[in-house]
Amino acid sequence: MTIRIRQKSKYQGDDWWRWSIWVEGTPAELDGIEKVIYTLHPTFANPVRTVEDRASKFGLHSSGWGGFGVFAQVFNKDGSSQKLQHFLKLFYPNNKLSEK
Length: 100
Description:
Mean pLDDT: 96
CATH class: Mainly Beta
Number of strands: 7
CATH superfamily: YEATS domain
């Protein structure tokens, strides 16, 4: 399995969502990761965030009003790294995609 970024989100009302992203992979792949540096949209306070928590699958939790491209650099314990990207999609309760 190749690692990738996954997401979940929950609509809070008033065009606002809580969301989470994490690295999905086999247990062995996740065990080999040292840290993940996420780069969020520049409108976020502190848009570059480092996560070192293997137990959460290197998860990041935040909230916002619209979808955007997330970039992640995965640093492995063996010294290698890999770049990933994911477009965060936010849906209203009726499954309509937010167009913001």
